[in-house]
Amino acid sequence: MDKEKTTLFELDELDKEEIRENLREIYEALEERGYNPVNQIVGYLISGDLGYISSHKDARKKMQSMDRAKIVEVLLKEFEKGSR
Questions:
Q1: Predicted local confidence at residue 9, as pLDDT
Q2: Phi, psi of 35 (to 5 degrees)
Q3: How far is it, in rounded angstroms, from Cα 62 to Cα 13?
Q4: Contact in structure between 18 and 73 (CB atoms under 8 Å)
Q5: How far apart are CA 74 and CA 30, in angstroms?
Q6: Taking CA 78 as the corner, what is the angle to CA 74 and CA 79, rounded to the nearest 5 degrees?
Q7: What's the pTM?
Q8: What pLDDT is attached to residue 3?
Q9: Strands, E assignment, the chain
Q10: Dihedral Cα 79, 14, 29, 37, nearest 10 deg
């Protein structure tokens, strides 16, 4: 890969909606178990360690099924929407 060129990375709307829905479900599952969902999800996104995500309601499986870079992209786009 040429270090001088910017690589484009885009998700289609179906992928984005699936990620949003999975994150909602994971968030709720973590909350039900008494965890701070934001801290747990951030811990996973930074480290890649699925141990941060409970297996309650298949949250860990759902998280494992998604690419971390795609999750970050969706979260940043949601932030961008909210900051306008």
A1: 63
A2: -90, 160
A3: 18
A4: no
A5: 19
A6: 115
A7: 0.82
A8: 72
A9: none
A10: -20
Q: Which residues are within 8 A (CB) of 4 and not within 5 positions of it... i.e. 6 or more apart?
A: none
Please list, in sequence order, all residues whose beta carbon lies within 8 angstroms of the beta carbon of residue 65, skipping any fewer than 6 positions away.
22
Alpha-carbon distance of 8 to 24, in angstroms, equals 27
CB distance 74 to 41 below 8 Å: no
Tens-binned pLDDT, residue by residue, of the chain (84 aa): 567 888 766 668 778 889 999 999 999 999 999 999 999 999 999 999 999 999 999 999 999 999 999 999 999 999 998 887
Backbone angle region of 27, left / alpha / beta, with phi > 0 → left and psi within -120 to 50 → alpha: alpha
User: What is the spatial distance between Cα 83 and Cα 28, in angstroms, rounded to a whole number?
Assistant: 24
How far is 47 from 3, CA to CA, in rounded Å?
25
**For residue 54, which of 21, 32, 24, 22 has the smallest C-alpha distance?**
32
**Residue 65: Cβ within 10 Å count:** 11
